[in-house]
Write a structure and sequence with these properties.
322 residues; alpha/beta; Rossmann fold; eight-stranded mixed beta sheet; 12 helices; 45% helix; globular; NAD(P)-binding protein; oxidoreductase; SDR_fam
């Protein structure tokens, strides 16, 4: 399904979506600014979901950036039904509050896009003491998904088969960068003795294992969970490795040679979120761009590891009081 473009998406009127990190990167600001400057079409995920009639909640930790993004969206689409959901992935309490706020506002949720993330940042810890990459990329999205599962499942009960989806953004780096054990089950994932690249790969592997276990546990509910490697895309995600790995500054032009910007870079994610060619038979699958179902790494296909991560995560969240 490599020949895909957003015009192939179905009408999404009546559907409700949440996109974490939906105000930047693959999603809003650069595509819209590009449109304003070049008069071209083909914006990112949030914009395309809105263009096809969906109600979209942008989950962002920054009120200023989120509101600025909504203003830009309204300039292009004055009737866009778009809202801001304050959600700081570095604070589990904020994530839990964001889910509760959404449930107060809406009684349906068709699409949850767990996209926001960081890459190869210097070692740091979150408010609850977890390693930052692991919490931002995986743990907080696990919590957000868990809190929203009841509304996702109730929506699936009254929706066409295959419509309700959870999309986790992973990376092919999970295969190259994660440790040989797959996941290092250390206290709050504070793996200080490995590189930032290893910690990043581990967080992206966790996204895949989360997807596999969601499909196993909740497949009968009608909710589809998929994950994807979006491909190399020119976004501000590269700021992390630029800051933590001086060599990356030299090789970045080669890494990104021929890579799309946020405009086309969002297409693989759009396909997973809303394409009618993705079906319930794809539940739990891992995709390369665009819509190419492929096995994950050996660790990514490890059912025992997926179950162990799920149980470990639940214990860690309980210990954190959420």
């Amino acid at each position: 399904m490599s020949k895909f473009e957003p015009s192939q998406l179905p009408n999404l009127a009546g559907q409700v979506a949440i996109v974490t990190g939906g105000h930047s990167g693959l999603f809003v600001l650069l595509p819209i600014l590009q449109n304003m400057l070049t008069k071209s079409s083909g914006p990112g995920t949030t914009t395309e979901l809105l263009r096809h009639g969906a109600t979209v909640y942008i989950a962002s930790r920054s009120r200023d950036k989120g509101e600025a993004a909504i203003k830009l969206l309204k300039l292009e689409q004055p009737t866009a039904d778009v809202h801001l959901l304050i959600c700081d992935l570095g604070d589990l309490e904020s994530v839990k509050s964001a889910a509760a706020e959404f449930i107060q506002q809406e009684h349906r949720l068709h699409i949850l896009v767990n996209n926001a993330g960081v890459m190869c940042t210097p070692y740091s810890e979150t408010k609850q003491g977890f390693e930052t990459q692991f919490q931002t990329n995986y743990l907080s999205h696990y919590l957000l998904t868990r809190q929203l599962l009841p509304i996702l499942m109730s929506t699936a009960e009254t929706s066409p088969k295959g419509m309700v989806r959870i999309v986790n953004v992973s990376s092919d780096g999970h295969a190259k960068l994660a440790p040989k054990e797959g996941i290092l089950f250390v206290d709050k994932c504070r793996a200080k003795d490995v590189s930032t690249w290893t910690r990043y790969g581990m967080s992206k592997l966790a996204n895949i294992l989360h997807t596999k276990e969601l499909a196993r546990r909740y497949g009968a509910s009608g909710v589809i969970a998929v994950c994807l490697h979006p491909g190399t895309v020119k976004t501000n995600l590269s700021q992390g490795p630029r800051n933590s790995t001086p060599l990356y500054r030299l090789i970045q032009p080669l890494v990104e040679l021929g890579a799309p910007g946020p405009e086309r870079g969002a297409w693989p994610l759009l396909w997973c979120a809303a394409s009618s060619t993705l079906t319930v038979e794809d539940n739990g699958s891992y995709f390369l761009p665009i819509g190419k179902k492929t096995p994950a790494s050996k660790s990514g296909e490890d059912k025992v590891l997926a179950g162990r991560l799920w149980d470990w995560t639940e214990k860690e969240l309980a210990n954190a009081g959420v």
